[in-house]
Amino acid sequence: MSITEDARFRPRPHVGWVTDTLSTPHDSPTVYVAPFPEGPALVLEGTGSVVWLSLDDGASVGETITLLAEGTGTDRSVVAPAVASFVESFLAQRLIEARDGH
């Protein structure tokens, strides 16, 4: 699947997740994601947690790239492959699905 910048995703209905803002010293929280009932839990930190939370918040892939680029002072062309990689991984693990109409 080719990931376009206007694509929007959300967690699948069988996936639960929580954030732990107390366990990490960086700006982004740790996110624990697990498909139910089969598991196992996936632990996301740094870029992974930002991508997850941004997509869950309704941001497009392009908006997520911009968020990370601006937050890290990095060029979008550097951030884009990392975001696409996380989205592809989440899709392959059946953790996310396309939002309606996207």
From TrEMBL:
Matches recorded under Pfam families: PqqD
InterPro entries hit by this protein: PQQD (IPR008792), PqqD_sf (IPR041881)
UniProt name for this protein: Coenzyme PQQ synthesis protein D (PqqD)
Organism for this UniProt entry: Knoellia remsis
